[in-house]
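Supplementary notes for students who missed Thursday's class. We covered one full example, reproduced here. Read the sequence, then the structure, then the short commentary at the end.
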Amino acid sequence: MSNAPALPVLPADSRSGADQPLLAIALILLAVSLFSVMDALSKLLAARLDPIEVVWGRYLAILVLLAPLVLRRPLLLATARPKLQLLRGAAVFGAAVLFIAGLQHLALADATAIGFASPLVVTALSIPLLGERVGVRRWSAVAAGFAGVLVVVRPGTGAIGAAALWPLSSAACWALGIVLTRRMAGADAALTTLTHSTLVGLALSSLALPFVWQKASLMDGAIMAAMGVLSASGQYLFIAGLTRGAASLLAPFSYSQMIWSTLMGYLVFGAVPVAWTWCGAVIIIGSGVYIAHRERLRARQR
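Structure (token representation):
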């Protein structure tokens, strides 16, 4: 379950099918465009409802879509790594709630740009959680990426301020989810992981829902259902793209979400990102692409 959500991070290469680079690129571009539409809908709902309620509605819609598959194939619920699945589901849930909370205070393009910090956090977490060795080049890319975040946030100017902590915390949670996914590599099918993430997220949001519940209209419910369809479809397309092309090849195209988010922000909210946002986004994206390149080299060495 991702924002992003909204916030795509490419794992290390784990393709099972033949390379089809053009098709893979097309699938990734389509997936991130769907994520951007979903984020715009999230921002619309966040103006009236609590982020937890918005996420709950999205998880419920995804579960409705998954239910026929699970009923036909109940073995999808069987997992070899139940604790890691639980932790991953909680991390992805945190990423979704925190990102939508950020959308209450930030323009869509600003939140998206800050969320691109996820690959940088993945690099940092890979040391204690995966036992990986990170060289000076990748650390330099991480430092450059966080410098890009500072360019977007411009601390001390009052341009974005403390609101930037929401998407930044979301990026950290999503990065943790990606690292846990790598820990589970080969243990469970992708659909099993998606099902468990959905169940964990729905359970956590249901526990908190009575404390934040606000009456939703029929239109709000329809938007939540649309978000669930967009999320499930985007994740399916994203996974399909990764099975047909190298992660290092697809990384730059996943960052096209910045363009889609800017377009949605303009069309729906009339917001145009300032030059600082674009400058910071270029720095963050460049560092993320370089990290993906270094991971490809490491994979070849292994």
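Commentary. The two ends are 29 Å apart (CA to CA). The chain has one domain: 21-301. If anything here is unclear, bring it to office hours.
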